[in-house]
Amino acid sequence: MQVAITATVSPHHPHLKPLVSFLRPSPPHRVRIHPLSHRLTTRASAMASSAPQQLTITRPDDWHLHLRDGQVLAAVLPHSAMHFQRAIVMPNLKPPVTTTARAVEYREEILRALPPGSSFTPLMTLYLTDTTSPEEIKIARKSGVVFAVKLYPAGATTNSQDGVTDILGKCLPVLEEMVRQEMPLLVHGEVTDPHVDTFDREKVFIERILAPLVQRLPQLKIVMEHITTMDAVNFVESCKEGNVAATVTPQHLLLNRNALFQGGLQPHNYCLPVLKRETHRQAIVSAVTSGSRQYFLGTDSAPHDKRMKECSCGCAGIYSAPVALSLYAKVFEQAGALDKLEAFTSFNGPDFYGLPRNNSKIVLRRSGWKVPATYTYGGGVIVPMSSGNTLEWLPSDQPEE
C-alpha cells in the first residue's frame, strides 16, 4: 500500500528550496483547497458502492505521545499499547526529562506499567534546554533508548517553562552534535512572543526560527510536530525529503477553530498549537492523503484530568489515544485515500527515523462503536476526543500475526 514519492529539490540548494515559497499561497500542484473538496466528493461517491468492510495494515507507531507519569500513566498507557507497537514519548514531565539517566528511569516506569504480555516499546526523548551539553547527546545515542531531542520554546505549552530561549544563540553546539550523531530534533513550532497573534504563532516560528535553522544546519533531521497550517505544509514540502518531516494529529485533520466555540466554549477541543481556520485544515488533509512520505502519524495524545480542562485556566491537550486510529481511518476514507493510510500510519515514521517497520498486523473493521464519555483513574477522570460519539472503524485489540 505504500506509494513512493520522488522529492522535488532545488538544484541550487539540495536541502531547501527557496524559502519565499512557504510565505506565498501554495502553487497549484501542492496545496489546492477547492480541488480538495471536489476530490473528496468525487472519490467518496465512487467508492460508496464498494466501501471495504475491513482493513488489515501493518501495526502502526505513534511518533508523538504524552504518557505522563504516576496514576495517569497507568491509566492511559494501555490505550496506546493496544493499537501501537512503538511510540516517541514526550519528555515534558515535572521535572522534565533532560538527561539520559532520567530517560532510562522513565522508560523503566513505562515498562512496569504495561499490561501483561504487551510488546509495546517506548522510544525516549530528551527535553532540550539552554544548558544541554553536546556530551549529553553522545550519551543519549550510546544508550540505545533515546531516539530524539524535543525543542520546546520556553513557555509555548504544557510544562515548557524550562524550554529553550534562543535556539541558535544557545544550542548550536548541541545541534551540531545531533547532526554528527544523527539524532532528530522534534520541534514544537510556535513562537511565544506575546505580540504575535495566537493563530499566527506557527507561521511566525517558521519564518523567524525554523527556516534559518534549516539553512544553518541542512543535515539536521527535523520533525515539525503536530502541524496546523498551510504554511507548515508548504515549508515541509520545500525541504529535502528525509531531512524534514511532520507529524499530524487527528484533531488537526478533523477540526477547525470553530470547534472551540460551537455550543459554548469547548475546553476539551483546546490544544496547542491551537486549531486553525478551515482552509488550513483542508491543506493538511490534502497533504497527508497525497501519499507524501514527509508526513506520519503522531497523535499528540495529551491526557489531563477533567477538572484541569474545565477550570478558569484550562490545560491545553486532547486525549486521543483510544480513538486515534478510528479517526485517521475516517479522514482517509473521506478523502478517498484508504490505500494510502498504511504508509502514513506504519511506514513513513520508521523510514524517517531509520528504524525497521513492524512485522505484525492490525485489523480495522467497519463496526460502529461508541466512545466512552470518560475514562477513570485513581485521581479522577479524563475526557477523550470524540467523547460519547459513535465511530465507524473499530481497531482490533490484538494484532494479527
UniProtKB/TrEMBL annotation:
<dbReference type="InterPro" id="IPR004721">
    <property type="entry name" value="DHOdimr"/>
</dbReference>
<feature type="domain" description="Amidohydrolase-related">
    <location>
        <begin position="62"/>
        <end position="362"/>
    </location>
</feature>
<dbReference type="InterPro" id="IPR002195">
    <property type="entry name" value="Dihydroorotase_CS"/>
</dbReference>
<dbReference type="GO" id="GO:0004151">
    <property type="term" value="F:dihydroorotase activity"/>
</dbReference>
<dbReference type="Pfam" id="PF01979">
    <property type="entry name" value="Amidohydro_1"/>
</dbReference>
<keyword id="KW-0862">Zinc</keyword>
<keyword id="KW-0378">Hydrolase</keyword>
<comment type="pathway">
    <text>Pyrimidine metabolism; UMP biosynthesis via de novo pathway; (S)-dihydroorotate from bicarbonate: step 3/3.</text>
</comment>
<dbReference type="InterPro" id="IPR006680">
    <property type="entry name" value="Amidohydro-rel"/>
</dbReference>
<dbReference type="GO" id="GO:0006221">
    <property type="term" value="P:pyrimidine nucleotide biosynthetic process"/>
</dbReference>
<dbReference type="GO" id="GO:0009507">
    <property type="term" value="C:chloroplast"/>
</dbReference>
<dbReference type="InterPro" id="IPR032466">
    <property type="entry name" value="Metal_Hydrolase"/>
</dbReference>
<comment type="similarity">
    <text>Belongs to the metallo-dependent hydrolases superfamily. DHOase family. Class II DHOase subfamily.</text>
</comment>
<keyword id="KW-0479">Metal-binding</keyword>
<protein>
    <recommendedName>
        <fullName>Dihydroorotase, mitochondrial</fullName>
        <ecNumber>3.5.2.3</ecNumber>
    </recommendedName>
</protein>
<dbReference type="GO" id="GO:0046872">
    <property type="term" value="F:metal ion binding"/>
</dbReference>
<keyword id="KW-0665">Pyrimidine biosynthesis</keyword>
<dbReference type="GO" id="GO:0006207">
    <property type="term" value="P:'de novo' pyrimidine nucleobase biosynthetic process"/>
</dbReference>
